[in-house]
Amino acid sequence: MAQNKKTEFPEKIQRIASFTKLLSHPARLAILEVLAQKQTCVCGEIVEILPLAQSTVSQHLKELKDGGLVKGEVEGTSSCYCIHWENLNLAYREFSDQMQMIENFKNQKGGSCCE
Q1: Is 110 left (phi over 0), alpha (psi -120 to 50) or beta?
Q2: What is the pTM of this model?
Q3: What is the CATH number of domain 10-100?
Q4: In whole angstroms, what is the distance from residue 5 CA to residue 113 CA?
Q5: Full DSSP string of the chain
Q6: Where are the domains of the chain?
Q7: CA 11 to chain centre
Q8: Which pLDDT tens digit goes with each residue over 61-85?
């Protein structure tokens, strides 16, 4: 049986991988964009704006919430969501720092082996 080797990597790299996986679906990026534009808790409006079914939006919101990029509260039969800015900014900084480190390695070596 194959073993999952994710835990063999540093926690920071695991967090960055989870962050990029969350952003790997266009619907989740579009949902974050809607939430950012509204700058308030958004309930059913996302379904009216995006070409997605309610169940699809709900599933993507659940993924974003589970990943810590979105906060949400249930109010009766509806749920309201907003971006968890602190978590999003932290994840973005870690991702940017990692990409910069990779770029620095390239610059230290004078380019890519494939160029």
Answers
A1: left
A2: 0.83
A3: 1.10.10.10
A4: 28
A5: -PPP-GGGS-HHHHHHHHHHHHTTSHHHHHHHHHHHHHTS-BSTHHHHHSSS-HHHHHHHHHHHHHTTSEEEEEETTEEEEEE-HHHHHHHHHHHHHHHHHHHHHHHHHTS-TT-
A6: 10-100
A7: 17
A8: 999 999 999 998 877 777 889 999 9
